[in-house]
Predict the structure of 1-deoxy-D-xylulose 5-phosphate reductoisomerase.
Amino acid sequence: MKQITVLGATGSIGLSTLDVISNHPDKYSVFALTANTNVEEMHRQCIAFNPRYAVMSCADSALLLRTLVEQSKLETEVISGEEGLHLVSEHSAVDVVMAAIVGAAGLKPTLAAVHAGKRILLANKEALVMTGSLFMAAAKQAGAEILPIDSEHNAIYQCMPASYRSGMPLKHIRRILLTASGGPFRNTDLADLARVTPEQACKHPNWSMGRKISVDSATMMNKGLELIEACWLFDTTPDNIEVHVHPESIIHSMVEYDDGSVLAQMGSPDMRTPIAYGLGWPDRIESGVSSLDLFKIAQLNFEKPDEKRFPCLRLAAEAYRRGGTACAILNAANEEAVDAFLNKKIRFDQIATLIEQVMELVVPRHQEDFDMIFEDDLAARAMAVKLIEQGL
Ligand code: NAD
Ligand code: MG
């Protein structure tokens, strides 16, 4: 029986993870669940999964949940804050940590799991984007197993040689073909992008996801973050990764070998497939995802990303090339920009403008350590807020 902690249990990935787990009560037991403020959903999950711990971000939400848990006569211990998140990420009883908190908020608990040498199912791409080489080095040192859950990276992982998955260095890889749906505005008139609403941006054509990653998909910053994520996970550079817009989201990414062979992983756009892969690895387990109907899909299309429409892709590649804390600065600026867009403080087309300005004004530092990354994250956020207040 594997003991699982789900960080970000009430989100889109958290719910999909619990759905897969619920189909395997003989294999997995929920050790801990965490959430930001959604007390109601957390209470429901405590009833369904009876975890040893439930962690809420703030003490007030924890108080509310504790009352509900007591009323339901559950044995779950309700705790709160950063210490609570650390406790359930690094607890000696835990085998697997699903890292599914959105954004930089997920970094510290994910790192706690890394340092404790857990198997980490990594959905929280921002954590890796921010800390890159430090994250990978810490995982190696602690013997933590990082299994990518982002569908593209999970696909790439599956297409890599078996020797790589058992710890040998990668060889004979020519390039990675990273697929992207192109989001909801792939064909929108450029002039209209200034007027699109948060609701339109959050309506993804193929995937149902949290609001932040949905906006990232619409700007294609999501693919930019994934480009950086792939560089760290698969020890490569943006020069060896080519983004392919593939609107059907059936091929989740590809790996091209030296002999010209291209391996692809395909499936319905449903995150339960990569989640089940991560939970079951090295075995395969039932995910609940229906079979792919290629007769119905009939056609797969590919196009090059439009650089004018999606400037965030270029900004992400640039941040990776600058190195040091530049990716943390990019990520922080993006989080602030997306938040401002969702709260109608800036327009959709100003997201990229804001990120570019922050990248010009906050100088990245090299020879970084974790503290430097946290400092530059804060500096980038402060700069973004200032620029928004000044009206860009
Ligand atoms: P979501 O917004 O649906 O859920 C986020 C979860 O994080 C919630 O449980 C929320 O309570 C928790 N959370 C938010 N802010 C927090 C804070 N400050 N402190 C503690 N907990 C906090 O997001 P999601 O779509 O599930 O995405 C989660 C992560 O997975 C993101 O990093 C995203 O990029 C990645 N991811 C998601 C998908 C997808 O299909 N949804 C696919 C690939 C990768
Ligand atoms: Mg993805």
The longest helix spans residues 370-389. The longest strand covers residues 28-35.
